[in-house]
Amino acid sequence: MATDPIYDTPDGLPRLLEIMRRLRDPETGCPWDVEQTFETIAPYTIEEAYEVADAIQRDDMDDMEAELGDLLLQTVYQTQIGAEKGLFDFHSVAARIGAKMIDRHPHVFGTESNAKSAEQQTRDWEAQKAAERARRGETRVLDGVAMGLPGMTRAVKLQKRMARVGFDWTDVADVLAKVVEEAGELAEAKATGDPDKLEDEFGDLMFVMANLARHLGVDPETALRRTNAKVTRRFNAIEDALAARGERPEDKTLAELDALWDAAKADER
């Protein structure tokens, strides 16, 4: 019985690229894979990036290895579609990012001194990115901030851009005061019963909260993921405690659930 030549392809990236080429073959490939486009794969790319972040947060290195593979697959997938359309391929994408990394690190790969602080290197990096945006015709301060970013992440990036030209608070106390102000406006919007106004004011409050996170040196997405994990852990503890007594959460009062929550919280200290 003949052996599929895929098993003779060198392991690692060469085999992965060949696997994807085979999956996308219009005659012999997988019907689902053949039907996919840049647009249909994009949500999976975002999801896999978050799953890498989740593995890091859980400090699960075995899972991280698997999730990095899933994320790599997304690049392989998109570049295979690009190759089929004659736009780019994996190798041209890798060459382009390689050239960019060399260009952006003249203190490592060029003649500049590498005796720079991390802060100075960050400023140099941002200056180079600004020059690249200008070459692409992106001349406005907020041009080029990706629309597809999570809302809080995009808010922070927009705020950082505005801060570079001086549009920023200098004291975190001013940001905290703005949080209180926006919370008050949200309460007023709720009283009107206008759903459009309510959504608008809620968005304003979230934007200011993202700004507060930036001023505190906190990544808001990471902070929220951490709280989501904490809530999940504590509520699971509530369910476990009730299950041990043959009971369920829906059969308990809010006061009883609160007491179990406090117990779960105390157990973590």
TrEMBL record:
Catalytic EC class: hydrolase
Q: Does the keyword Hydrolase apply?
A: yes
What highest taxon heads this organism's lineage?
A: Bacteria
What EC number(s) is this enzyme filed under?
3.6.1.8
According to the UniProt entry, its GO molecular function terms are: ATP diphosphatase activity
Name the catalysed reactions.
ATP + H2O = AMP + diphosphate + H(+)
InterPro entries to which the protein is assigned, alphabetical: MazG-like_dom (IPR004518), NTP-PPase_MazG-like_C (IPR048011), NTP-PPase_MazG-like_N (IPR048015), NTP_PyrPHydrolase_MazG (IPR011551)
The NTP pyrophosphohydrolase MazG-like domain extends over 36-109, 175-235
Q: Name one Pfam family in it.
A: MazG
Kindly list the biological process annotations in GO that this record carries. dATP catabolic process; dGTP catabolic process; dTTP catabolic process; dUTP catabolic process; response to stress; TTP catabolic process; UTP catabolic process
Q: Which residues cross the membrane?
A: none
Question: Which keywords has UniProt assigned to this entry?
Answer: Hydrolase
Q: Which family does it belong to?
A: Belongs to the nucleoside triphosphate pyrophosphohydrolase family.
NCBIfam families per the UniProt record, alphabetical: mazG (TIGR00444), PRK09562.1 (NF007113)
Q: Which PANTHER family match?
A: NUCLEOSIDE TRIPHOSPHATE PYROPHOSPHOHYDROLASE
Q: What is this protein called?
A: Nucleoside triphosphate pyrophosphohydrolase
Q: Which organism is it from?
A: Pseudaestuariivita atlantica
